[in-house]
Amino acid sequence: MAYSKHTWLARIGENLNRFLNTTTGQYGIYQSAPTSISQEGTPFNVTWMNEMEDGIAQGADRISPNLLINTNFLSPINQRGMTSYNTVNKYGIDRWRLYGGSPSLSVSASGVTVSGGSILQPVENINSLAGTTFTLSAKKSGVPSESITGVLSTNTVASSTTYDMEFYISGNYVNVRLGIGTWEWVKFEVGEYASAYSPRPYADELAMCRRYYQTFPGKLDTPIIQYKGGTGYAYYPIEEMRVTPSVSCSTVIAYLSKDDSNLGEGNAVGGSPNTIAASRGGVGAGAYIEMTDTVCDAEIY
């Protein structure tokens, strides 16, 4: 909610120090007459109050939303479930892709450690802000946070310090890259200065990550609801994703019933951004399709 700045005005009038004695009905003019002053104190006047209002308004304006997802590296979303990743151009912790050289990413209580390369997050839907000033700030373990500011374009805005980080437009996305080090958090925002970092609630962060990647460990049973050309189709609802996901399962098997032996392997694909479509040819009277260890991937590559 935006802060509405107030303008403090001086009190103007005549005999402002005149007071009424309600017992005698007489008026008197009074002034402060302390016996001693050990400290004068800060004056209370419109100048000071309006300076305070300016500071509050400026501070409120500087609180900008973080355009990155999964930025609290002390407690990151990690649906893939591994403590280390080292395959270039593949994602490790949610929304962060390993990039360049021979990258390695490991997760610990100290943060996310990157070595041999970088991690990169493509950000959607902000290319229209080319020409706008952005700020990228981050915190490494054991040292103060740092930030870089620059105009968003295809030219790279990079740190000139020991903090290896940068941002730039690449195709349809804006790439934010973090280099070697152990990172605690990162923030990317509109504006010419870095506002305070505040992590989102874990549940909110997870929901944002699942727009790009969803896992379903174990077995999913879903009834066959359509037959076409001798093939039975089952549709399993999922949380809506960025695009129709690619779907992989360790097994896709058709059953006549949940207690019967399987009728053979099938396959599964993304039916829409919020559906998995599983199928098995020649199932005849088959009633169920079971998917095991299902992964839905709608990440940006």
Average pLDDT works out at 89
Shape: elongated
Helicity, as a percent range: under 10%
Number of H/I helices:
2
* Secondary-structure-derived class: mainly beta
Low-confidence stretches: none
Q: Approximately how much beta-strand content do the residues carry?
A: 35-45%
How many beta-strand runs? 21
Termini, distance in Å?
A: 36 Å
Please state the CA-atom Rg, rounded to the nearest Å.
30 Å
Largest sheet: 8 strands, antiparallel
What letter string, H or E per element, gives the SSE order?
EEHEEEEEEEEEEEHEEEEEEEE
**Quaternary:** single chain
Can you characterise this structure?
By secondary structure, this protein is mainly beta. Helix content is 8%, strand content 41%. It is built from 2 helices and 21 strands. Strands 14, 15, 16, 17, 18, 19, 20 and 21 form an 8-stranded antiparallel β-sheet that branches. Strands 3-5-6-13-8-9 form a 6-stranded antiparallel β-sheet, with no helix packed on it. A 5-stranded antiparallel β-sheet has the order 4-7-12-11-10, with no helix packed on it. A hairpin with a 2-residue loop joins β19 and β20. The relative contact order is 0.12.
Describe the protein's topology.
Blueprint: E1 18-20, E2 27-29, H1 46-61, E3 84-85, E4 97-99, E5 104-108, E6 111-115, E7 118-123, E8 133-140, E9 146-151, E10 157-158, E11 165-170, E12 173-178, E13 181-190, H2 202-209, E14 213-228, E15 231-237, E16 246-248, E17 251-255, E18 262-265, E19 267-272, E20 275-281, E21 288-297
Antiparallel strand pairs: 1-2, 3-5, 4-7, 5-6, 6-13, 7-12, 8-9, 8-13, 10-11, 11-12, 14-15, 14-21, 15-20, 16-21, 17-18, 17-21, 19-20
